[in-house]
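Dear colleague,

Thank you for sharing your sequence with our group. We've completed the structure prediction you requested, and as agreed, I am returning the results in plain text so they can be pasted directly into your records. Please verify that the sequence below matches your submission; if there's any discrepancy, let me know and we will rerun it promptly.
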Amino acid sequence: MQTNYQVANTQTLPAGAHKVLRNTYMMLGLTMIPTVIGALVGMSMNFTWMASSPILSTVIMLAVMFGLFFAISANRNNAFGVVLLLGLTFFMGVMLGPILQVALNLRNGGQLVGLAAGGTGLIFMTLATIGATTKKDFSFMGNFLLVGLILLIVASLANMFFQIPALSLAISGVAVLLFSGFILFDVNRIVRGGETNYVMATLSLYINIYNLFVNLLQLLMSLMGERD
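Please find the predicted structure tokens below.
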């Protein structure tokens, strides 16, 4: 990831953008540790209560997430913000438990998880490189991505009631494209000085990567999953 930062055009970057991007990538790498630990914990947990009460479990998860988002934002300029960020990534790792349990019950589940992780990494590195090195300003994508995110949330909530497999597949496909766009937008915003706090920059990119992985894995499970 540091290579992406080093090849950026120094003449077009605002002062300090290199440092923010470097610190963001370093922190992003660090967040993977509690995420993996959380995922291991989550895979050993019983999530049947979530299946029996999907709406309640979603509300609880969102309440915890947005509570941590607010706390991180409020402490973005001190060390406690970093602690909260790592705590959030541990929680997000635990929340990977249900989908990883389903995936690993497939005959080729381990392969699909590996493909999703590898695909997420490849997409991130490609788009982060473009966002950091191009002279093009992608700020015009902001409103489009925001509207897309709102529509995606509405569609996801609606499908919790209707449980339509084809709609679930479409939502995952759109989410992969949407969060890929957010990666390009956010990295470009960092190098152009639109985000000068590496804690908040890391939070944005982490959420993008997390959602990209989850939805890519859901697509692979639906299209390539081998059930007994």
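Summary note from our side: Residues 2-224 form one domain.

Kind regards,
the structure core
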